[in-house]
Design brief:
This protein is of the alpha/beta class. Helices cover about 50% and strands about 25% of the residues. The chain has 6 helices and 5 strands; from the N terminus they run E-H-E-H-H-E-H-E-H-H-E. Strands 3-2-1-4-5 form a 5-stranded parallel sheet, with helices on both faces. Strand 1, helix 1 and strand 2 form a beta-alpha-beta unit. Helix 4 crosses helix 6. It is globular.
């Protein structure tokens, strides 16, 4: 039923908590974890001309680090994995990746933000993915440690 499990990641604690669930599912089903991190181009395009290149470079390094964290955890769990970094609008890239790669399940974390905090963070990527996919999705609310 689940051969390919997508774990979109920004490297946050919420992602790592969602990854625990994804690894449990993948290990019992012999599935592959797909780690995807999306550099939100709206952020570096909004920066001043003198800051764009440096910001984009930093975002790319952060995205690479985020997928590597997922890869390390998958490797330790004995689960096959693949990593991808994309540049675009996060929810759109997640949906496109899921379609293009035959993803059976999307596992995402959420902070459960609302109101002004949600607006300040450009809305909820998880919410937009849930609203725009017909694929099964597991949403894991981040727990305070």
């Amino acid at each position: 039923m689940y051969d390919d499990v997508l774990v979109p990641t920004d490297g946050s604690d919420g992602t790592m908590q969602a990854l625990e669930h994804a690894l449990d599912i993948a290990s019992t089903r012999d599935a592959t974890i797909h780690a995807l991190s999306v550099m939100d181009r709206r952020l570096y395009l909004a920066a001043g001309d003198d800051q764009k290149a440096e910001l984009k470079e930093t975002m790319e390094a952060d995205a690479q680090s985020a997928v590597e964290r997922v890869a390390e955890a998958a490797d330790e769990a004995g689960v096959d994995f693949t990593t991808t970094v994309r540049d675009g609008i996060p929810y759109r890239e997640i949906l496109e990746y899921a379609e293009d790669n035959g993803i059976d399940l999307i596992v995402m974390g959420t902070h459960g933000r609302s109101g002004k905090d949600k607006l300040a963070n450009l809305g909820s990527v998880t919410e937009r993915v849930v609203e725009n996919t017909d694929k099964p999705i597991l949403v894991v609310r981040m727990q305070d440690e």
